[in-house]
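Milestone M4 deliverable, item 7.
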Amino acid sequence: MDYDVIVIGSGFGGLTAASLLTQLAGKRVLVLERHFRLGGFNHAFQRKGYHWDVGLHYVGEMHRGGQMRQVMDLVTGGGVEWAPMPHEFEVFHYPEVTVRVPADRVAYVDTLIEHFPNQETAIRRYFTDVHAVSAWCGREVVSWNLPRPLGAAMSAAGRRTRAMALRTTADYLAAHVDDPVLRAVLASQWGDYALEPARSAFAIHAMIVQHYLRGGWYPVGGSDAMTEAIVRVITAGGGEARVYSTVEEILVENGRAVGVRVARKRGRDSAVEEVRAPLVISDAGARATFNHLLRMPMPQSAALRRVPSGNACVTAYLGLREDPRRLGFQGENHWIFGDLAHDPVADGAAALAGRARSGYLSFPSLKDPAATRHTAEVITSVPVRAFDDWRGTDWQKRGGDYVAVKERVGRGLVDLVDRQWPGFAATVDHVEVSTPLTVDSFAGYPSGGFADLATTPERLRRRMFPAAVMPGLKLTGADAMALGIVGAMMGGVVAAGSAMGPLGIPRVMARATR
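Output delivered:
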C-alpha cells in the first residue's frame, strides 16, 4: 500500500477530497485520471491559439471572508486569485422584457419590482423562500453524511421548509407568482443546474439563486489555475496525479473496498495493474461507480434507475478576431430566450435545425484578466438521442455527417447572438462545437449533459447517494452534493470529512473558517 487514498477521477470533487485529506489528515493520495488532462469538467483546451474552459463559466460566493471562499482557499492552498464580474453580471433577454441582474440582493429585488410593480409582494416572498430553502438543502444533504443522531436532528430542524423545497420549481412559481413573464424571469438560471423548471426541485433552484446573489467571479488563469494549485498541494504531501490511467474496477474483499484495477497507458503500450489503499474515493459519477466499477449487485443501482439525467447540451466555443467590448459587452452573462416556455425539447429541435432560439452567452476572455485572446461560448439544450447514430465512435473520428451536424449547430448559435447584437458574426474567427458525445468521451456521462443525475424532488425525497458507499469507499463530486464548481467542491468536503470520522465534516469547515 504505497498510498493511503486512491481517488478515481480528477474532477473538482475528487481533487477537493484529495487536497483536504492531504492537508488535514496527512494522507498520501493517488489521483487517477483516464484522460490526457487533469480536471474533469474543470479543464481547459486550446485550438488555433484560443483557450476555453469547458465546465467553468462563473462561480458565486467568492467574496473575501465568505464561507465558500474560505473553503476554496483551503482546498487550493490559497493559490487562486478571483476576479469579480461586472456589477450587472447576468442579463435575461425575453421578447417581452430584458432584466439586468445586479450583484446585490437588495438591488436585484428593486430591479424586479421596477419591472413588475404589481408583483412586489410575490417578489419579496420569493427571495425569503429562496433563502430558507437554500439553507435547508445544504443542511439536508450534509445531514445524510453525519452520524445518525446528529444527522437526524439536523434534518428535523428543517421539517417546515421541506415541503416547499421538494416541490418542482414550476409548481412553486405557479403557486406564488401571478405574472407569467415574471415566472419565466425568475426561472431564467435553470441552465445552471441543467433541468427545466417543470422537472427540477425548487431546492436546487433556490441554491443556485442564493449562490449568485452577490454576483459572479472567475479564477484568474481559468480552470488550469485551479487544477494546478490543488495538484501542488497533493504532490507537496507526497501524493501524485496520473493521467492516461483508466480505472476498470474497484476491488472489494470481504465487503470492503481495498483498491482498484487500473489500465495505464504508456506511449503505445498499456498495462493493467492493481493498486491498493485503505480508502478509495470515486469521482467517476454515481452511475459509473455503481453500474460499472463495482462488479457486484448494489442497491444504489436500482435507485439510479429512478433518477433521470440532466439535459444534454451543445456548446459553441468561439474564437473572436475583435474585442467584444466594441459591441457593448463587458463580461456579463446573457441568457437569451425565444419565449417564456423554458422548453428544452423545442430549444433542442431548433438548435439541431440550425435555427437556435435560446442560449447562454458568455465571454471567458472578458472575465479572466490573464486571457490573451478573445473568446466566447454559446450553450443550448439538445436531445441526446439526436446523436445516437454516432454512439460508440471515437472522439475526432466520427465522420463527415457528424461534422456537418456540428457545423450547422455552430452556425445557428452564432446567428442567435448576431440577431440580438448585429455585427457579432463578423467578429467570429473560429468555431469549435462540442456535443453530448464529447461530454460522454471526456466525463463519462452518457446523458451528455453537465449533470448526470438530475436534482429532482424524488432524488432529494429519497435521500439518494450519501458519500459513504461501503467500508473503504466514498462517493464525491456533484453526485454527492450538487452540480457546479462549488457543488462539486462541497461533495469533496463531504467525502473527505466522512473519511475523517464522525465529526470530520465540522472539522473541515472549522479549519477553513478559522
